[in-house]
UniProtKB/TrEMBL annotation:
InterPro entries associated with the record: Adenine_glyco (IPR005019), DNA-3mA_glycosylase (IPR052891), DNA_glycosylase (IPR011257)
GO biological process, one term: base-excision repair
The name this protein goes by in its record: DNA-3-methyladenine glycosylase I
Example of a GO MF term: DNA-3-methyladenine glycosylase activity
PANTHER family, sorted: BLR0857 PROTEIN (PTHR30037:SF3), DNA-3-METHYLADENINE GLYCOSYLASE 1 (PTHR30037)
Domain of life of the source: Bacteria
Pfam families: Adenine_glyco
Length: 223
């Protein structure tokens, strides 16, 4: 694999200046900021990510105020009490996206958040304290204990809330293949560990957060 110096020089050439490069890079939230996000906001964003999957984001976002209303502001203690009959009734509500499987995920993830809250004090504490040098471990934890958080949903959710994470988009996977770090989209523990190790090395060389390295790497793919 190539070192960070190559990655930085490639992106400088592509964007023309250091200022242009920095302007397009995301900024992660600090641990304190992540810890300060309330659990109802985490449940809202987690649910938003699930409903966005496979749908046009603007369509989902436009309907989200109605979701906030029918799910009691995503208060986990209220949402967890929503039974099958109430969810079935929501299938008649034209103001929201009527996908029963995704609707059922909301109370299940409310229970997940309450379980974490009981163990750690808040869901934000879990997100804030998880070390970024094992961010794939957090993906696996979310996928295992949450509902409908497999595939790209966990890393995309983390990017939404501001937790530092890389996201294995098609462009990033193509770039990792070009660097001979992996030969296909990473799904196995071995493949994910190889990607994590590569990002840890680039982070050690650069001091940059994973999310910035992820975006820079994706831009090394020629279109």
């Amino acid at each position: 694999m190539r070192d960070y110096k190559w990655l930085h020089e490639y992106c400088l050439n592509r964007f023309g200046s250091a200022a242009a490069l920095e302007a397009m890079l995301p900024q992660p939230r600090s641990a304190e900021e992540l810890r300060a996000i309330s659990d109802d906001r985490y449940l809202s964003l987690l649910s938003l990510r699930i409903f966005r999957a496979g749908l046009k984001h603007s369509l989902v976002d436009a309907k989200w105020p109605a979701f906030e209303e029918v799910f009691f502001g995503f208060d986990p203690e209220k949402v967890v009490l929503m039974g099958a009959e109430r969810l079935e009734n929501l299938m008649q509500n034209v103001r929201i996206i009527r996908h029963l499987g995704k609707l059922k995920s909301v109370p299940r993830n409310a229970q997940f958040i309450l379980d974490v809250q009981k163990e750690r004090g808040s869901f934000g504490a879990l997100i804030a304290d998880w070390p970024v040098n094992d961010i794939v471990g957090l993906w696996k934890y979310l996928a295992k204990h949450g509902c409908q958080l497999g595939g790209l949903s966990a890393p995309r959710f983390l990017r939404m809330v501001g937790k530092d994470s890389f996201v294995p988009t098609d462009d990033m996977v193509a770039a990792l293949k070009a660097q001979q770090i992996i030969d296909k989209a990473p799904t196995s523990l071995k493949e994910l560990a190889a990607v994590q190790a590569a990002f840890n090395q680039w982070q050690a060389e650069s001091g940059r957060p994973l999310c910035q390295l992820s975006v820079m790497l994706a831009h090394t793919v020629n279109h």
